[in-house]
Amino acid sequence: MEVIKALSTNHMQAGLVDLSVYQGAQLCSILKHRQQSEKWVYLLANQLRFKRQGGHKIALPRPDAETTFIWLEKLIVGGQAGTIFVENLVLDEVRRKRLLQLCKQMDVILVNLNRQNAENNTLVYGPW
After folding, report:
1. Measuring CA to CA, which residue among 78, 71, 13 is closest to residue 44?
2. Which class is domain 2-117?
3. Under a CB-based contact definition with an 8 Å cutoff, are residues 15 and 111 in contact?
4. Burial category of 58 from C-beta neighbours within 10 Å (exposed 0-12, middle 13-18, buried 19 and up)
5. Of 51, 7, 55, whose CA–CA distance to 27 is shortest?
6. Percentage of residues in the chain with pLDDT exceeding 70?
7. Inter-residue contact 62 to 46 (CB < 8 Å)
8. Which end of the chain is more exposed for a tag (fewer CB within 10 A), N or C?
9. Category of 54 on φ-ψ map: left (φ > 0), alpha (ψ -120 to 50) or beta
10. What is the CA radius of gyration of the chain?
């Protein structure tokens, strides 16, 4: 099971962010900034957990994709969430825009945590 350090920028913009679990500095930065507010930090994941418990943090098992979207809408609209981390979040364009709009309205950062190591990704450029 991988670990997310629950420590973590001066000013973070609300919205949707895609990060790798291997980008520890950015994750810590988000957590540190958001923990200064009294809002909750959520983690919806099956293979990840917070390194340190306590404070305003809640870890929940990530349900199927449809239920995850419904939960995210409710968590964001509820007004108590500051940051929501979701393991391997897959969204179509309509749902992505909906969550982005809600995050901006409610001042929430939604972080899609993927478990791919960015250094091992192969990106092919071509003339097509």
Report:
1. 71
2. alpha beta
3. no
4. middle
5. 7
6. 67
7. yes
8. C
9. left
10. 15
The confidence score (pLDDT) of residue 113 equals 87
Measured in whole angstroms, the distance separating CA 83 from the mean position of its chain's CA atoms is 7
**End-to-end Cα, the chain, rounded Å:** 40
Q: What is the C-alpha separation between 42 and 59, in angstroms, rounded?
A: 6
pLDDT in tens, 39-97: 888 989 888 877 766 677 888 999 999 999 999 999 999 999 999 999 989 999 999 99
Which helix or strand (DSSP H or E) is residue 76 part of?
Answer: helix 65-77
Angular region, 40: left φ>0, alpha ψ -120 to 50, beta rest: beta
pTM: 0.75
Tokens representing 69 are: 């979207």
How far apart are alpha carbons 106 and 97 in whole angstroms? 14
CB count within 10 Å of CB 47 equals 12
Token reading at 59: 């870890």
Is there a contact between 45 and 62 (Cβ–Cβ < 8 Å)?
Answer: yes
